[in-house]
Amino acid sequence: MTCYDRRDLGLLLLRLGTGGVLAAHGAQKLFGWFGGHGLEGTGQFMESVGYVPGKASATAAGLAEAGGGTLLALGLATPGAGAAAAGAMAGAAAVHKPNGFFAQEGGYEYAATLGLAAAGLAVAGPGRLSLDHASGHVFDRGWMVPLALGVTAVATAVVVGARNERMREKTEGEQEALFED
């Protein structure tokens, strides 16, 4: 008989909470569930904050959140799931960064917390109360952790960097237009 310890129960609770919240946010983007705006509305928002093309960006963010969140909750492919969710949250944090840290002011606190929890699960692993454990960790090997996090970090840096450049150019263009009037 297998005896589960506090760590396994704690990881299960963390996975269910973090994964559930991420999956719900992804469903808002992809399907318009839970008061979300679906791909069309989210795509328009993504364009307005510099993620171009908007609909493709909304799809990528929605899949990373819904897919990564669901897989985290199940404890399946934990390194990739955590990395994907963390990358999506880094992209969200970039949007909220100008508002400071605290969420009550529109800051990046919430996105950072979800991203760090997802990355932490990718590193710590899912525990024994998981599909990864039940499947013999086929999709949860030690070498997968740095690979998943590294690839996600590079992709996120490219996407967020391009977004930040577009926003900088937009701001400069608006300032120039003010001086011309």
TrEMBL record:
Superkingdom as given in the UniProt entry: Bacteria
GO cellular component term, pick one: plasma membrane
Membrane topology: Multi-pass membrane protein
Alphabetized Pfam families for the sequence: DoxX (PF07681)
Keywords: Cell membrane, Membrane, Transmembrane, Transmembrane helix
Principal localisation: membrane
Residue spans crossing the bilayer: 71-95, 107-124, 144-162
Location in the cell: Cell membrane
PANTHER family per UniProt: INNER MEMBRANE PROTEIN YPHA-RELATED, OXIDOREDUCTASE CATD-RELATED
Homology family: Belongs to the DoxX family.
UniProt name for this protein: RpiR family transcriptional regulator
